[in-house]
Design goal:
Helices cover 56% and strands 19% of the residues. With 274 residues, the protein is of the alpha+beta class. It folds into two domains: 131 residues, no CATH class; 85 residues. It has a five-stranded antiparallel beta sheet with strand order 1-2-3-4-5. α2 crosses α6 and α6 runs antiparallel to α7. The longest helix has 78 residues.
Length: 274
């Protein structure tokens, strides 16, 4: 069977690779192992699918909702080989003084890879554990373990996302409360300043009225101006308002709801009845 390693070897050598005598046998073994693996997976109720993965398509099993990708290739060894005279004369090799090349030597043994989301690829080799024909159960158990790890990692990622959303909502709520507190404090100070100014102006208006009383002939426009000044003072003095109006201005929160309240609900208003 042809592999990525063999394809790379052809590019390095610069000439087509000769087909080995045992290559058809290796291909037949790989096909047989694939068949045994798929039969064992179907026996456990796992569905085989082909999905697009990054820039290519990958085959895999759907185990407990997780897509477990798997592939099998022939194992190769990398061996240094000296360059031939023709290769030594090539411009690139002359400039870089390259004397050897990497050759990929097939081993006629297979490597089985298992890959899933949220984890690195697992590798199983025949050189270490024996032929795959007798290890189908081990490979399938590894796929099931990969599915369990993927589910746990996915749940953990979802929990982290939920906690981030909660922290963001809490931070937003704190910002809203801080803005509301600042707005209420500013309004309180503004009303207090208005009351202090109205008190001073009212005292001043009383003094002006007393002075105008000393006039021998008091023009009518004096009374008109005094009435106008008194009405202006009363308009800006918060203590001249009704109790409910003063409550709405100083104590009750604004009726314009924030984005947080629209999403999570409005706080309970205190009852006030005049």
């Amino acid at each position: 069977m042809e592999t990525q390693e063999n394809t790379s070897a052809e590019k390095v050598a610069g000439r087509p690779r000769k087909k080995r005598d045992d290559e058809p046998a290796v291909d037949q073994r790989a096909l047989r192992i694939n068949e045994l693996f798929e039969q064992a997976a179907a026996g456990r109720g796992y569905k085989k699918e082909t999905r697009k993965f990054r820039k290519w398509y990958a085959r895999g099993l759907v185990i407990r909702g997780e897509f477990i990708r798997w592939r099998m290739i022939e194992r190769s060894r990398i061996r240094k080989q000296p360059l031939t005279k023709e290769e030594l004369a090539e411009p690139y090799n002359v400039v870089t003084r390259r004397k050897w090349k990497a050759a990929y030597i097939p081993t006629s043994t297979l490597v089985f890879f298992i890959d899933a989301d949220y984890q690195s690829e697992s590798r199983f080799e025949e050189l270490k554990g024996g032929p795959f024909e007798g290890r189908i159960g081990e490979l399938l158990a590894a796929c099931e373990g990969a599915a369990s790890l993927a589910i746990a990692a996915r749940n953990k990622a979802a929990e982290r996302s939920r906690r981030r959303a909660e922290r963001a909502a809490q931070a937003l709520r704190m910002d809203i409360l801080a803005d509301r507190e600042e707005a209420r404090w500013s309004k309180f100070r503004a009303e207090a300043n208005a009351w202090r100014e109205a008190t001073i102006l009212r005292e001043f208006l009383d003094g002006v009225a007393r002075k105008m009383g000393e006039l021998a002939e008091r023009p009518r426009r004096v009374d008109i101006w005094l009435d106008w000044a008194k009405s202006r003072i009363d308009f800006h003095d918060p203590m001249t308002r009704e109790a409910h109006a003063l409550f709405t201005t100083l104590i009750a929160k604004p009726r314009l709801l924030s984005d947080y309240e629209l999403e999570f609900g409005e706080e309970e208003d205190c009852d006030f009845d005049v």
